[in-house]
User: Which sequence fits this backbone?
């Protein structure tokens, strides 16, 4: 009896080891092949682009729906939205329309176009994604302006005017029907050849007078383009001022009127600002 038990235990151990080291099941072969095998588009806000794609059935495909993953639905639509059964070897044309809203912020968004079974071939298959989805990436870029070695992106809802002689670039609302002074964001370069500190420079001479705010600590330390910067809220003006110390100079970014804080445009410009 003891011998039989030992033999049984040995067999169980061998089966366990075989299962442990067995090769994993092979990944399912794709049922369709996309051409191209991925879509990557770069657009500015307000732009629209149409992209022709297609897929070839590597096996018979039942009736299906074409679906854009939630992450890219703000930008991407697909036609047709559904297809009938597709025979092996048949190619189906699919059109993607990429459209970026005028108020979109710079970002890269990824997702996919999926083909999902529409016929109820049993509960397990209905709605199943047919391998493999088409990867999609949409990169939203703003227009760019350059002032000396400063490079900055800005929303197309603003006009950019570079005054090289005054070492300033100004952004204002791009609305020809706008009456009165337009809200502005200004980026300015101010030389600091003597290496003055923030407090020494911005005491009214040569820079703006921020002595009260600096003395009281009424500012926040932030990072702009990987560099330490100082953000001042000036409610009496009103304005928001960001000061970026650089070697031999200061770069200031001003939202006169604080009109671009809630829209994200001021922060978007700060995020894109590249200098030394």
Assistant:
């Amino acid at each position: 009896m003891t011998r039989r038990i030992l033999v049984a235990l040995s067999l169980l151990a061998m089966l366990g080891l075989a299962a442990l080291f067995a090769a994993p099941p092979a990944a399912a072969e794709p049922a369709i092949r996309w051409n191209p095998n991925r879509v990557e588009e770069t657009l500015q806000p307000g732009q629209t682009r149409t992209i022709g794609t297609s897929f070839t059935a590597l096996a018979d495909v039942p009736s299906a729906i074409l679906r854009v993953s939630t992450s890219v639905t703000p930008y991407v639509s697909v036609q047709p939205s559904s297809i009938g059964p597709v025979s092996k070897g048949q190619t189906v044309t699919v059109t993607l329309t990429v459209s970026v809203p005028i108020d979109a912020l710079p970002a890269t968004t990824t997702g996919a176009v999926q083909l999902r079974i529409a016929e109820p071939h049993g509960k397990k298959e209905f709605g199943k994604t047919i391998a493999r989805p088409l990867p999609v990436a949409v990169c939203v870029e703003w227009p760019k302006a350059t002032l000396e070695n400063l490079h900055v992106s800005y929303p197309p809802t603003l006009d950019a005017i570079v005054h090289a002689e005054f070492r300033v670039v100004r952004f204002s609302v791009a609305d020809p029907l706008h009456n009165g002074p337009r809200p502005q964001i200004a980026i300015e370069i101010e030389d600091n050849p003597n290496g003055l500190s923030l407090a020494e420079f911005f005491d009214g001479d040569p820079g703006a007078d921020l002595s009260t705010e600096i003395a009281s600590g009424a500012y926040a330390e932030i990072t702009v383009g990987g560099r330490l910067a100082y953000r001042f809220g000036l409610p009496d003006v009103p304005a928001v001022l960001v000061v970026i110390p650089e070697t031999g100079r200061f770069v200031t970014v001003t939202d006169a009127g604080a009109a671009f804080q809630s829209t994200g445009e001021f922060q978007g410009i700060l995020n894109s600002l590249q200098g030394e």
